[in-house]
Amino acid sequence: MSNAATQDQQDALLDLLDQVMQHELDFLTELGPLILCASALGVEKDTRSSARLFEAAHALVIRECTHLDEELGLITVEDRGEKSGRRFFALTAQGAHFTKADPLEMAS
């Protein structure tokens, strides 16, 4: 994980990651639960920032976000950059359920 995240954010992310992994969801890669947890904590809300945070290729993050959106329904892609392919996303009610996050609180 990049140094961009504070130690408190990293600790919260790891704690939430343990919780999410107990649900045995069908993620494509290990990026899936990381993206879900980072979104729930409000650490990242777009694919480019997530790629930087997790030191992963942007294309891999986009692929995982597409799976989280279209196959699992855990996030929803709200906007997409035409040139960069960057996606801005938010948790769905189902994603909030698995992370115990309140989607109304996330919107503020």
Can you tag this structure with a few keywords?
108 residues; mainly alpha; two-stranded antiparallel sheet; 2 strands; 55% helix; 10% strand; disordered C terminus
Give a verbal description of the structure:
This protein has 108 residues and is mainly alpha-helical. The chain has a two-stranded antiparallel ribbon with strand order 1-2. The chain is 55% helix and 10% strand. The longest helix has 15 residues, at 7-21. It has helices at residues 7-21, 31-41, 47-53, 58-71, 93-99, 103-107, and strands at residues 75-80, 87-91. It is built from six helices and two strands, in the order ααααββαα.
Brief characterization of the structure:
55% of the residues lie in helices and 10% in strands.
N-to-C CA distance = 26 Å
Classify the helix fraction into a percent range: 40-55%
Q: In what order do the strands lie side by side in the largest sheet?
A: 1-2
Helical segment tally? Answer: 6
List SSEs in N-to-C order.
Answer: HHHHEEHH
Topology:
Layout: H1 7-21, H2 31-41, H3 47-53, H4 58-71, E1 75-80, E2 87-91, H5 93-99, H6 103-107
Antiparallel strand pairs: 1-2
